[in-house]
């Protein structure tokens, strides 16, 4: 029996834009009223600087090569790795 079962299917649609907005609103709500995005970014920048401070010469060369290759971000504001 080779019946056409497409007539039995129920159409399903979802508005991904709405769902993404809802998800983001839930994330912000979960962060709470005391969350300070400027302080969080400042702390992240401080941690990044600390992570790559005090490198010896070989480590610094490796770090510089990884930045030049786009594997690690440089020190510019809004930095992100190229890959």
Automatic annotation (TrEMBL):
This is DUF6400 family protein. It holds the Pfam family DUF6400. InterPro entries: DUF6400 (IPR045649).
């Amino acid at each position: 029996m080779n019946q056409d079962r497409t007539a039995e299917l129920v159409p399903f649609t979802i508005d991904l834009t709405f769902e993404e907005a809802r998800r983001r609103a839930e994330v912000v709500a979960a962060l709470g009223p005391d969350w300070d995005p400027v302080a969080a970014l400042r702390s992240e920048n401080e941690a990044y600087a600390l992570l790559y401070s005090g490198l010896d010469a070989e480590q610094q060369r490796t770090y510089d090569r990884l930045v030049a290759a786009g594997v690690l971000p440089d020190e510019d504001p809004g930095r992100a790795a190229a890959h």
